[in-house]
Amino acid sequence: MNIVVGVTGGIAAYKTVHLVRLLTKAGHDVTVVPTEDALRFVGLPTWEAISRHPVTTSVHEDVARVRHVALGQEADLVIVAPATANSLAKMTAGIADDLLGTTLLATEAPVLVAPAMHTEMWRHPATQANIATLQQRGVHLVGPAEGELAGGDSGPGRMAEPEEVFAAAQALLGPGDLAGVRVVVSAGGTREPIDPVRFLGNRSSGRQGVALAAEAAARGAEVTLVAANISADVLAAARRPSIRVVPVGTAAELSHAMQETAAAAEVVMMAAAVADYRPVTVADRKLTKEHGGVPAIELVENEDIVASLAARRREGQVIVAFAAETPEDEAEMLARARAKQERKGVDLLVVNEVGWERGFESAENAVHILGRSGDVAGTATGSKRDVAAAVWDAVVRER
Ligand code: CTP
Question: What is the pTM of this model?
């Protein structure tokens, strides 16, 4: 799920570092929006490193995507932790003089606030009136707890512990539309060996497949990620208890892993870029120039894995394939995609227009999703995580 964590200027901001960690570990995509003041307590690099997203306080960055409203519109939940007395007053008045302010005004998602301030400030009628107004508007409150405060005082005003804020957030998000659903996602690109040091490969980084796995996990699915040659760095985004990673190298290994795991899955998603051909023979020793002449590598066709999974699908299983196309125009792309969907016998086909720059290796993506009857069941542009969300939305509708 898409979660915005607003951080305002209080010492408790250090606790929010752990909260962001808990949220990302649970599979959520977290964007941190600090106020300028919050950065005095915890700096930008920390927020960027733990959320794995760029962080800004300004409404003037990424203007093309209308970020100041887009963040709020796309969020499934907005958390403000810590929420200072000042920030609660601004929220109540609807002041939007920074990115957090505009995000809070633009969102229709549930909002959860975790106040943190001195006891006197918390008890002040102004703060209490603001809290009452916010609650009337549907804002959810977690804490403040009673205990020791900065400066040695004690009383109500301590920010709720990160685990408690996390639990409140999970309760607001609900069980997720894939709760308990078993899914298998293949990702990355296969490598077909030529000799001990060379292979035929492709430029797939595995980012899109990893984003699909993470999104499914965040929605409650139990995920098996069959990972073909994905770097540890990319795979890190899928490190969580509900995702089991099965590393593979070649198309044959990927096929074997898919056949084994697909049998127990309700959804099978083939996002991996599979080599259509492999060398007939693999040299035991490195090919050298001493052999003389330019070597000819004879190829043999690999099995179409997704087609054979589709042919053997169990009752009610949804099979999703991906197609990378380099078409002249959209009409040609859709026509090719429809033919591919039919040929492979899959339920959904996610078509991705790729070029030297687009699609592969890049963080941004643009796709069309074809539904069972070949209709365009969805489109998505944006981050690979945005695309992943649109693909799972389409799967949930098809189920
Ligand atoms: N795929 C597969 N097994 C293969 C080749 C591809 O399961 N041997 C799957 C991919 O994982 C993807 C889909 O098929 O989900 C589409 O792959 P693509 O390469 O676009 O299709 P091809 O069948 O190879 O068609 P073409 O190369 O002619 O476009």
Answer: 0.78
